[in-house]
Amino acid sequence: MAVLPPDPVFSLRSPDMGAVNSLCFQESDRLLAGTIKGSVFLWDLQTNRSALHFEVGSDPITSLHHTPDRLVTQQKGGTITMFSIGGSSYVKERSIPGNHMGFCRSALHTNTSKTNEQLLFYPCEESSIGVLHVTDAAAPTQILVPDDPQLPKLGSVTCFKPFECASQLFLLAGYESGHFLTWDISSSVILDVLELAQDATTVDYDPVTNRGIVGGPTDKLISFSYQRSSMQLQRGSELCIKNPGVNCVRIRPDQKVFASAGWDGRIRIFSWKSLRPLAVLTQHKNGGVMDLAFSSQPVAMWRAPIMAAAGMDSQISLWDLYN
What keywords appear on the UniProt entry (predicted)? Predict the structure, then answer.
């Protein structure tokens, strides 16, 4: 007998919220949602109510990140806005105008080798990537430009993932052409180029298990790893899914499972060790699931780490899965 998929522990809804593009946890008992209307909703997971919402702009919020004292948003078009926490609200600090018309999302990384320095990686025009110091406004912004004439024509950047290995900071970046470049951030040097997946929309990588996963508009998820001594990317196996199109892949922090968010509204859960499919979650029936987020610590109400998922059906589902 087939095992029925689990139900969510709760679904968050608000008549004012509408479709959701992006999610992030603030610690573990607060969840932020960025909407296609350009607003941010803060949900209190102790009461499961919206504690605050405010407008960033008229463009959709494509990415959200929260540091201990700041909120960072990315809007469609590429504009980055930073907010500080002021009492019970957020106060706008500064904006960086963007010039990226694609779908690449920004990424926040805590550089543990440099006293927890907070770095924001964000897409710029054409193939360039900006590296911004979140906590130090005076620090210069680093721009990664793949201008080596021997490189193939890359097109726009479509996804990336910063990570640390042996106390060095790297960035794996995918481009429209299907090529993935591995950057050494300290020297702005490209270490490796591999054609992996054309028009990839999402990538995640775990340096502890040395494995990553890529998703895009096809019906396949592609795994990869690194040859550590040379930092050369190596293609792994392919995982077939029933319907094409993946907006997001996320590896859970405990490396037990990973999840994909599909254009078909399905959330697919896989074992990270075996890459075997474990469940297909069907809570979101009207439109694609746009983003997934895992809490880093247990959420008090459910005494377990929680996965949040949201998309075009104007709800945020919360899940306690395989903990």
Answer: Repeat, WD repeat
Q: Which of 208, 264, 260 is nearest to 239 (CA)?
A: 260
The answer to whether residues 175 and 144 touch, using CB atoms and an 8 Å cutoff, is no
* Per-residue pLDDT tens over the stretch 212-266: 999 999 999 999 999 999 999 999 999 999 999 999 999 999 999 999 999 999 9
Tokens of 6: 């689990």
CA distance 154 to 308: 33
Q: List the 168-175 sheet strands across, edge first.
A: 157-165, 168-175, 179-184, 189-195
Find all residues with CB under 8 Å of 229, minimum gap 6, and list them: none
Token pair of 117 as six digits: 């320095």
Contact (CB, 8 A) for 143 and 128: yes
CA distances from 92 to 74, 82, 87 (A): 13, 6, 13
Instruction: Convert the pLDDT of each residue in 65-99 to its tens digit.
Output: 999 889 999 999 999 999 998 878 899 999 999 88
> If we measure between CA atoms, which residue out of 51, 57, 64, 52 comes closest to residue 20?
64
H or E segment and range at residue 308: strand 307-311
Q: Provide CATH code, domain 12-103.
A: 2.40.10.480
Give the domain ranges of the chain: 12-103
113 DSSP 8-state letter: G
